[in-house]
Each structure stands twice: as structure tokens, then as C-alpha cells.
Please model this.
Amino acid sequence: MAPKWRELADKLAEQIRRGEYEPGQRLPQIRELVEAGEGSKATVHAAYKALEAEGLVTSSRGHGTVVRERVPLKRLGIARYDKAKWRDGDEVAFIADRVASGRAYRRNEQTQTVSLVEAPSAVAAAHGLEAGAPVYARARLVKEGDQPTHSLTSYYRPEHVEGTRLVDPTPGPAGRGGGFRVLYDAGYEIDHMKESLFARTPTAEEVRMLQLPPGEPVVELHRTTYTAAGTVVEFAIGVHAASRFAWEYDFKVPDSAQPQEGQQ
Amino acid sequence: MAPKWRELADKLAEQIRRGEYEPGQRLPQIRELVEAGEGSKATVHAAYKALEAEGLVTSSRGHGTVVRERVPLKRLGIARYDKAKWRDGDEVAFIADRVASGRAYRRNEQTQTVSLVEAPSAVAAAHGLEAGAPVYARARLVKEGDQPTHSLTSYYRPEHVEGTRLVDPTPGPAGRGGGFRVLYDAGYEIDHMKESLFARTPTAEEVRMLQLPPGEPVVELHRTTYTAAGTVVEFAIGVHAASRFAWEYDFKVPDSAQPQEGQQ
DNA sequence: TAGTGGTCTAGACCACTTC
DNA sequence: AAGTGGTCTAGACCACTAA
Model:
């Protein structure tokens, strides 16, 4: 026998899925359900909290508990890194995702801080440095309108970026073409990348910064960018609200018994 | 001012991170903290529940609340699909991950059911069929020892697999080489793939089936497999416990102004 | 100011594990 | 049987939102 709060949550979830409560609509007030005999206030509250953790509703004091909109995922393919965008065009590289998906660019949708820090171990490993070696960290919080969608922190070796716009701590994108363009102009043309992804529950700090609904997981993306010579010129860590993105990769089925073939 | 339960949870989380409580060790009993003046039982319980949702501890009745082990992520690269493994070798394709990471193969670590179903919309879209068209669904639950790690359901078009071992509903891997080998023998050699990933909170059913700790997210993987001619021969949906996997992809930075180059 | 969800208490009782 | 976390109640009070 499931606990009472679980049964109530399941009942409400079922009603939401059947469309009896539509996105944007309010669920019954907690006190109403208490009077209707669904349990004490704490019990009903536990059920509402479960629904919130499962991403079905959001609650706010003074307003009520409303059914969440189901926003379609933004699909991120590797085309967002197309050299033509940042090398030849006017686009700012790290808003390429948005451009690719047809959203308008608005100013000040990104805040940025640049600082010289001691490399955390993952960063040091990617750059082939010892832990604690000095690296430049360029952290930005990317928003879509008022809504933060992800944070992205790039780490650079000082000898690659000192004297460039990248270490100029002016808010906003690093000028035309963004960070990849700056590296290109400095003689470091990016050539290939490795992306590594995993999901986890957010820290309390991330919940605050990304304005995550309770229970929403995050996807952490580690991106290592190499020149043709194999030098790592950027290692970036992104933290994304899970419900807003999907990642897509195309590749040939490898065959270690055959020479490498062209990329899909 | 954060709620009392949040402050207590943060205090304990900090102690865990500092190593004052080591993995496997018990946290203080709820009643102890109540007596120590940390709040009422409900308050302390709320803090413990938050720690559990954040993946730091697991609680069980009669036993206590223990700090979780931090198991290293299994890294999944595309090498796990290497043709040499399933075409030439003895390995069963869908245990290739395990073999690659040095784990022994044990029998009966996989249950399997095969059935003819009406294609859900995502499946129909991938195969270029109309929703509701008949497809074979081969569902398995992959375990490592007693611990389920992910479920994987493959969808095939009937004309590709009828008469093969794939539609023989015997539990266990589909014989030497697994599903890709069966398709190969039937004249459908796989050539390239598309993988699409996103994270979400699990359904109640998935929590049960994958034995997920409360609050643990899942990663859903959609894998589309093509022949060289571009025919989709398999579309698979995997549901993975988030804390156990990371995915890795290598790729060239695309350049739409240049001809395609070799794959990294 | 009225109405909403959120927190907190004190205590009873339940369900599971371990001995 | 003893000890653990989990559920539940009844009610007080707090914090935020909207009219």
C-alpha cells in the first residue's frame, strides 16, 4: 500500500495527463483537498511537492499551484559550431544555438566575468596542466529573455589568450564571432572537439542561478576544443536545465578492422 | 533566511563533502538531532529527504541513513559499436559496454521480451511509418549483477526481421554478435547512427524497474541506426540511471564553406 | 487585506531491519 | 524485541501575491 500522499499525487498526475487540468490551469487549493478529506495539510502538501519534483506543476505562495507548460526541447547538433558562422559571418558563436533555432538575439542576454583562477582538477587534466596552475576562466550565464537557460564557463591557458579581447572583462559576448573568432585571430584555429555529457541533480547554488523548478535535473557538458595539431585551446563546462535541451550526434559506425571513413 | 530544514541539510552536505562523514558511514539518527535541538522530527526528516533527493545519502527503515558511494561514471563512447566486435568477434553487441570497461559478462543479466506493437509516434517518425503501423519491439532490462543499469527497447520494421532470431522471444542476448549481427546476416549492414539524448525525471514505473534512488534523474537516449543506403533498420530508446553513465562524442568542427573532412 | 503555499511543532503510530 | 526511518494529524504561524 503506497502512502496516502503518493496515491493522491498519482491521482492528480493521472488527471493532468488526461487533460482534466490543462497547462496554466490551477490545481485545487491545498485547503480544499484537506476539507475534501484527502488528508491533513501536510499530507496534501507532500503530494503537491511530489508533483513539483516530477516536473508536472509549479507552486508559488499567494498564487497557487499551476500545471506546467510542456516546452519543446531545443535540439543541439554540432552544426551550432559551424566555422562559417563565427569565422566568416557576423554571428556571435555562443549565441549560435539560438540563431540556429530561429530565436531572435537580444542584447544583455548574457553576463560575463573573466578571472585568473587556479585550475580545478578536471580543467587541469583537459589542458594537460598540473592542478592549481593558473588559467583564465570566462564564466557566463546565458538567458533567453528573463529565463536563464544555462551557464557556460570556458577555461583558457594564459599564453593563448593574454592580450586578446577574451580577457577583457567587459560584459557581453567577446565581440564579433565570439571566443572561437578571437582564438582564430590569435593563430589558434579550432579543428575538432570532444563533448562529454552526464546528468545529475543540481546544487542549491545552481537551483538559484538557473531558476530551476525543484526536482529538475541538470546536464553537465564538458567540451574540449583542439587545434589541428591537437593542442587544447579551450575547455568549457556547461550546466543546462535538463528540460530545455536535447543533444544530437551523428557518426559512422566505427570499424577497427577498416581504415577510417568520412564523417556523416 | 532559508528554512530550517534547508539550513540543516546544507550543514550536513558540507560535512559530507569535507569528509566528516565518509561513504558507507551512518548519519546521526533523526531522533538524535531532534534531541540536539535541530528541530522537530518532521523538520529533520525534511532535511534528510533533501539530502536523499540530492543523491548524497540513502535512507532505509530499520537501518539508518548512510552516505552514498561515489561510483565513477561509465563512459560510453562510440567505440562500443565497433563492427569488429559484433561482426567478427564473439562478443554480444549490447554487452560491449561492459566488456569495454573490463567487467565480466554474466548470464541472465538481461531479460528480454519481443512483441509486435503499434508504433508510438517517435518510433513511427524514425522509421518513416505512420503512427500505429506494426513494428517489432524488443525490450530488455540490462543489469550489472543485481543492479539494473538501463532499459533498452529496439524497434524494427517487420520486413527486416521476420524469420530471424531477433523475433524469437527467448530470454537473453540474440545469440552471437547480438542484434546488429542478426541484421548483418539478413543483409542489412549498419553504417551510421544518430544519437539524441536528454535528461528528465523518471516515471514511477521507471523508479521501480531501475531501482532508482529517490530524486535520481534518468537520461533517455534515442538511437537511430541506418544502412549505407540510408534505410533505418533500428530505432532504440534507452532509459539510463543518470548517475551511472557519461556519454562522449568526438567530432570535427563543421565548416559549411568547406568540403567534409575525415572523422576524428 | 484576503488568499495562497510553506514551515514548524508535538506526538501517535506504522513498516522495515537487525539481533 | 529493539531500533530505525516513514507517515500522518491538528493546528499555529510565516511569506508571498494579487486585488
In short: Chain A touches chain B through 55 residues (CB under 8 Å). Residues 75 and 246 of chain A are 5 Å apart (CA to CA). Chain A has nine helices and ten strands.
